[in-house]
Amino acid sequence: MKVWIKYLIGTFLGILAAFILPLGNASVDSVVSSLSEISIRFGRYALVPLLLFGTAMAMYNLRSKKHILKTGMWTLGTIAGTTLILVFLGLLTILIVTLPRIPITGEKISEVPSINIKEMILGIFPFSLFDSLKDGVYLLPVFFLAAFAGGACASDLADSKPILTVFESAMKLCQTISGFFVEWLSVGMIAISCYWMLTARTVFDSNIFVPLFVMLLVDFIIVAGVIYPLVLRVLCKDLRPYHVLYAGICSTITAFFSADTNLSLLTIYRHNKESLGIHDETNNFSLPLFAIFARGGTALVTTVCFVTILRSYSSLGFTLFDVIWIFGVSFGISFALGAFPVGGVFVSLTVICSMYGRGFEAGYLLLRPAMPVLCSFATAFDALSAIFGTYIVAVKTKKIDKIELKHYI
Predict the structure, then answer these.
(1) pTM over cut 0.70
(2) 33, 296, 352, 382: which could join 83 in a potential S-S bond, CB 3.0 to 4.6 Å?
(3) Does residue 110 surpass a pLDDT of 70?
């Protein structure tokens, strides 16, 4: 059975269970929440070792073959390009379509999340390189450690042969282990989707945010069904662009219901390799960078939400300066969300409200009840960007093997 079918069945059973279980029962919510958290931790269990050894081998191979510059440039360019496309689409749709106003609430400001750039930079270079492996949330320190190790091996091959043998064996072992976790996470999707539905039901029942969700759904269909396939057709001369979308079904399902960028990364790893035929050196180098920095989906949702907040408070229109400011700030903040694989929309929205000022500092509170669903859409967009983006890099650097559609996992 195809992996995406297993995930689809698990998701269906979880949603069905959410309608059978009593709504608002504290004991039931606690049990389902615990099972969902266990499933997410189970799915992310093998991610850091795979990233460590895989990136080290990727960096060694790319540097020894002198492909690091070309791969790096295509990766960074594609990250910036996909983010620009998504932010532009989000801003365009919310300016064209006027959504109903969100009722103003009297909720008070509590603890406000923020982005501490200094702490993020210091986190990349802790006092001990072993501390880089302690945090399974912020993946950039692990990536830097692995990249330095792999690059160092390429500078002195004679002395590095023993450690390279260890890295390669460990990478293959981690790929096997991660395949096991990906298979069994389909069972965990029952708990994850059940908890998501229990949380989202009250949001859907209020009908306040439904127009906003419909807009995001339409944007997702446009991106997945039109824009990204068209980019592949033009940029990669790919005559069958929808096979990439087919390969990403499992990862998109995981991303949407878990709202966890790191969790979906594990499923993307496997499908890129076994379905799309992307080579390890591209998969292990470019994909982590997409997961950390390509948060254009989060920027799209943030842009739509922020304009909705402004319209809910005021009937005044937007000047050209306002539009450019919203576009630029949403675009810029998206690259600083690597430490927030979960809840990136809420963080970026609070930051943009604070930066905008003019009495809108607490505007994000209007959409706080809808955050579980908004974060789901953002993570699904980001997973889609990672899949299509890595494929583009692999094609342009010729690091891909053609696999027949019937052999996709």
Answers:
(1) yes
(2) 296
(3) no
